[in-house]
Amino acid sequence: MRTRPSLTSSLRSPNLLPYDPTIAGVVFDFDGTLTQPGALDFPAMRKEIGCPHDGDILVHLRNLPASQQARAETIIQAMEMTAAERSVPNEGAETVIRELRKRGVKLAILTRNSRAAFDCALKRFSRISAADFAIILTRDEARRDKPHPDGVVQAAVEMGVPCDKIVVVGDFSYDIEAGHAAGAATAFLPPLPSATTRIAPTVRLTRLNQLLDVFF
Fold first, then answer.
1. Residue 64 gets which letter from DSSP?
2. Are 24 and 184 in contact (CB under 8 A)?
3. Is the same domain home to 128 and 151?
4. Cβ count within 10 A of residue 66
5. What is the pLDDT of residue 38?
6. Cα atoms in the Cβ-side hemisphere of radius 13 Å centred on 121
7. pLDDT value at position 12?
8. Domain for residue 18, yes or no?
9. CA torsion sign, 137 to 187 to 42 to 38?
10. What is the predicted pLDDT for the residue at 152?
């Protein structure tokens, strides 16, 4: 049996218990995690729909009057599709997915993106497909969006893996908050070295392929 490496001080968040070495499932965010960050311009999107600079775009959308909601949704979908068409796989993403599949780890995707934009972006990958995942939850399928934990719980049920045997991987605070609230381990892949999260992740990665060394 391969010896699992311990969490190093450079990866592990302070004051946390060691991770559970029996992780059997991974819930990935998509944009900025499996794809390279920066394709979608969130500040520009907020400006276009009149959302405060630090506001939650989807919450803002749903709170708009009906007369404004359709226009805002059209803008969001158009910007998402443009970003999806120019997105590229993140470094090591396809290798990590294929290796986890080889090791029998259950996989899921949980994204706040639309299904249409997700499907478009996934076509930019050459070595993985939707068939590699037990479930794919976009905002069109998830009961409630991140940071609510419902999507993580829903993915866990579909994978047949308890939440405490799952790691949630993402590039934004909402990913870490959702995973933590569901009782899962979390791995933060910051888009910038200065990026932070509201809740400390179990581990902070600098490259996606570190996930294999830390948890598997």
1. S
2. no
3. yes
4. 6
5. 83
6. 29
7. 47
8. no
9. negative
10. 97
Cis peptide before 37 (omega within 30 of 0): no
**pLDDT (0 to 100) of residue 16:** 41
Same domain, 206 and 100: yes
Largest CA distance in the chain: 61
Quick one: 62 and 117 in the same domain? Answer: no
Give start and end residues of each alpha helix (H) in the chain: 42-49, 57-63, 66-86, 93-102, 115-122, 150-159, 173-182, 210-215
- Overall domain count for the chain: 2
pLDDT for residue 19: 52
Ramachandran quadrant class, 8 (left: phi over 0; alpha: psi -120 to 50; beta: rest):
beta
Q: State which residues form the domain around 203.
A: 25-37+89-215
Kindly state the tokens that stand for 84.
């999806």
Which residue ranges in the chain fall short of pLDDT 50?
A: 1-10, 12-18
